[in-house]
Amino acid sequence: MSIVRIGLDLAKQVFHVHGVNEREQPELRKKLNRGQVLDFFARLEPSLVGIEACGSAHYWARELQKFGHEVRLMAPQFVAPYRKDQKNDDNDAEAICEAVGRPNMRFVPVKSAEQQAILTLHRVRAQLIEERTSVGNQIRGLLNEYGLVLPKSIPRLRRDLPAVLEDAENGLPDLARDTIADLAERLGELEERIKRYDKRIERLADDSGTASRLMQVEGIGPVTATALVATVGDARYFKNGRQFAAWLGLVPRQFSTGGKPRHGRITKRGDRYLRTLLVHGARTALCQLSRLNTAKAQWAQGVRQRRGFNKATIALAAKQARILWALMAREADYEPAKG
After folding, report:
1. Average pLDDT, whole number, for the chain?
2. Which helix H or strand E contains 59, and what residues bound it?
3. Looking at 136-145, 212-221, 291-300, which range is the least confident one?
4. Contact in structure between 108 and 75 (CB atoms under 8 Å)
5. What sequence ranges are listed for the domain Transposase IS110-like N-terminal (predicted)?
6. Facing residues of 9 across strands?
7. Are strands 3-9 and 70-74 parallel, antiparallel or unpaired?
8. Cα distance from N-terminal residue to C-terminal residue, the chain
9. Which of 194, 197, 282, 338 is a Cys-bridge partner for 316, taking CB atoms 3.0 to 4.6 Å apart?
10. DSSP annotation of 257
11. For the segment 151-191, what is each residue's pLDDT rounded down to a tens digit?
12. 27 near 1, Cβ under 8 Å?
């Protein structure tokens, strides 16, 4: 009897496989070394393969698809309820095999190598920004030990720091002055590297028709647009814009029972990086919309007056997510009057 569904538990070196036949009876339990995985699946008849969405999952999904297998990725938290016993590799593979066959399971789109390359660019840029923030905080903290207080923002720090280092009468010891000068040089190098990454992202956005359409929306720039295109891929994978916003964690958390709906803070599920970009973009858009007279602007200002700036920002970010889904799924241009 042939195998119709397989659960593959990934690891760095040792992989576990669990397969079932048409009668849902276990037909395959196997442990594979990394070098054996592709040869093993190449010999199998095409089947449905489930994998947890974790490190290297997209790579293995692409490789198995080359052999004709239908590969579906699932978030680990959706697989855990199907694990019947203690956590180990065999039970994990069995749980994956069970979960991938559920008709109501939600799956993660498989990313192409090009999508992952764009996200690699974003991840390195984000790390450089964190490092720049860290160096700036260190400079301010060290200068504060000598009674020298500088502003928090990076642009003002760059502007005011040279005068502090050149002032020989401010009580800063020469050793500390030289050390902080080295940090200032490092800060400048980080700034230049971030600018180079920004230019590369701008070129990617200009070359992508989808990203160009997304940038028509208020508060959406090249960074957010390219991150959305690379992360989401085919937006039609989501049923509607609300499901997309829920995937990003921008909808209220529910705790409802007995017919009494209770809504709390946003769930913050999904991609943290995308959600952060959308929230920052919504904060900028909220200021821009205050000068417009569209239906979207009136709605945003109404929420701001009733609930305050921060809650209005989150509400606008959720609305922006639904609009962006429509632009990607329908390949349409943004019409501000209808936003």
Report:
1. 93
2. helix 57-65
3. 291-300
4. yes
5. 6-146
6. 16
7. unpaired
8. 55
9. 282
10. B
11. 889 999 999 999 999 998 898 999 999 999 999 999 999 99
12. yes
Total residue count of the chain as it appears in this document: 339
% of the chain surpassing 70 pLDDT: 99
The pLDDT of residue 33: 96
Domain spans, the chain? 3-100, 113-207, 209-338
Tell me how many degrees the CA angle 56-274-251 measures, rounded to the nearest 5. Answer: 115
Residues 6+ apart with CB under 8 A from 11: 89
| Spatial separation of the C-alpha atoms in residues 26 and 99, rounded to whole Å | 14
Which of 125, 124, 131, 122 shows the shortest CA–CA distance to 188? 131
Q: Which of 278, 264, 280 is nearest to 325 (CA)?
A: 278
For tokens 């994990």, the residue is: 92
60, 118, 106, 85: CA torsion to nearest 10: 50
> Which residue carries 């160009």 as its tokens?
212
CB 30 within 8 A of CB 22: no
Among 126, 123, 135, CA closest to 186: 135
Helix (H, G, I), strand (E, B) or coil at 10: coil
Task: Please state the pTM of the whole predicted model.
Answer: 0.88
- Beta bridge pairs of residue 30: 17
Strand 3-9 and strand 14-21: pairing? Answer: antiparallel
Select 3-100's CATH number: 3.30.420.40, 2.60.40.1180, 3.90.950.10, 3.30.70.20. Answer: 3.30.420.40
Query: Residue 37 and residue 201: Cα distance in Å, rounded?
Result: 36
**Local confidence band at 335 (pLDDT 50, 70, 90 cut-offs):** confident
Q: Which residues contact 134 (CB under 8 A, 6 or more apart)?
A: none
Phi, psi torsion values for 174, nearest 5 degrees: -60, -40
